[in-house]
Amino acid sequence: MLNEKQKLNKVMKLGIELSEVKDIDLLLERILREARKLTNADAGSIYIKEGDKLKFSYTQNETLQKRLLPGKKLIYSTFSIPINNQSISGYVANTGETLNLPDVYKLQSGLPFSFNKSYDDLAGYRTRSMMTFPLKTNRGDTIGVLQLINAKDGRGRVYPFAKKDEPLIMHFANMTAVAIERAQMTRAMILRTIKVTELRDPMETGAHVNRVAAFAVAIYEVWAGKRGIPHDVIDKNCDILRMAAMLHDVGKVAVSDAILKKPGRLDDTEREAMKIHTVMGARLFADRYSEFDEAAAVVALTHHEKWDGTGYPGNVNPVDGKVLPGYENSDGSARSKKGEEIPVFGRLVMLADVYDALSSRRVYKERWEEARVLDELKASSGTHFDPEMVEAFFSCLETIHSINDRYPDH
What we know:
Elements: H1 4-19, H2 24-39, E1 41-50, E2 53-61, H3 62-65, E3 80-82, H4 88-95, E4 99-101, H5 118-123, E5 130-136, E6 142-152, E7 158-159, H6 166-200, H7 206-226, H8 231-246, H9 257-260, H10 268-274, H11 276-283, H12 291-302, H13 344-359, H14 370-379, H15 387-395, H16 397-406
Antiparallel strand pairs: 1-2, 1-6, 2-3, 4-5, 5-6, 6-7
């Protein structure tokens, strides 16, 4: 376990690292993980303020995680609770106070809040010690709540959270609040861009792009883990991939309404015109100022390539759309990318996008049943999709389903 000086140094270093995480979902997961490490907490949750309610956004539980097979993630439902004094997290959000409770089953009488043990009963878990902090910005606004559960000693025994840790964790919470606010602004900017596309293409919704991006990250984590890619590299790539994947179809703003809003299947000429959205999307990120710009361009350009080399747009220059020298077919068209020529991020978003498209209603088709979708993905392994990524998809199917629940169509 870390001593006080080591903890302080750790918090200062984390402040810098967390400020570099751009995606809000990945940031919340990282914040919770690091807060638990600082206090040796077995479990914890983060709630984010939305209006007059708190949204239960992320949870982690080491005890429950150990009951799962290796590589599996803890599945949980998101929900909202009112910001008032009746619940522990609601009280902290409402008052701005910190609560450090030795045993939530033995609360003093007369307190305005109570502990809801229904989750414990459902999960077969026993919550004892709990420390709950408000997440406050530099302006003093509470934007959420960080809750840590069951501090453990070196032998794994649960004990109360140390009073002396409160100032350190409060400092950590305040730093993370600033990072969360920044990441929320980044997500909002991306979703505003998506809304522009949605005005042109009704299917290009915030729910759709959030699902595709989250699917791609879930698949990547399993695929990268099996390949032995270091955790810090996986974390960094997930952050970039999550945002880039949301913008995979942004190039559709360059396609005419007659094609985007056609109530039926496209003819050959219309399909060729639709293909331009890949090049136009990549062109939006032609000025590469960051790794995100590079990733967004790659995803936009290559998410319709196919593993067997029958996709599009192939080896073209996204700046002018011309075929790259040496990559011409006999008819002068661009040779399609094939196999591992297709960048990893393109292969991931390709699979995630097709799964979501088949699972959703479109103007030219009804939603497919899940069994039919899964059969199609299996049948397309090695032709449309990278076989290893299809295998990774099925390994994290429970996570995929939970993402569907988190981002439903309205």
